[in-house]
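hi got a favour to ask and not much time before my train. below you get a single protein, a line of residues and a line of whole numbers that encode the local backbone shape. could you go over both lines and see whether the tokens make sense for that sequence. a few lines back from you is plenty, here it is:
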Amino acid sequence: MRLPHPRLPFTLPPMLCLLAAMALTPATANETEAALPVFTLEEVAEHHSPDDCWMAIHGKVYDLTPYVPNHPGPAGMMLVWCGQESTEAWETKSYGEPHSSLAARLLQRYLIGTLEETD
């Protein structure tokens, strides 16, 4: 199966399409993050279901709702972390190993804000 890519004049296999999309995305993370809204942990906690799943990871807030049905692991593994500070889950994947660099790049697509710093 081959998929069209909106920025390329030819089709690519699904995995290459994903990698091409990541490579063609401008690297303006610092500029983008500076303009993002700031959320409290209490606001993140309001989004704790499969239909509304936010997570705070390394001080950033992600709306992972669209990704929930695509998560490759067991559904419950991800859902228990919805609405929470989830850095531990991200770093250990419940198996003691961190997520891959590919997963880290994919995560950036769901970035919606930063987590308010608390003392």
About this structure: Strands lie at 3-4, 11-12, 38-39, 48-49, 52-57, 60-63, 84-85, 111-115. Confidence is low (pLDDT under 50) at residues 16-27. Residues 18 and 30 are 22 Å apart (CA to CA). Helices lie at 14-23, 29-34, 41-45, 75-79, 87-92, 101-107.
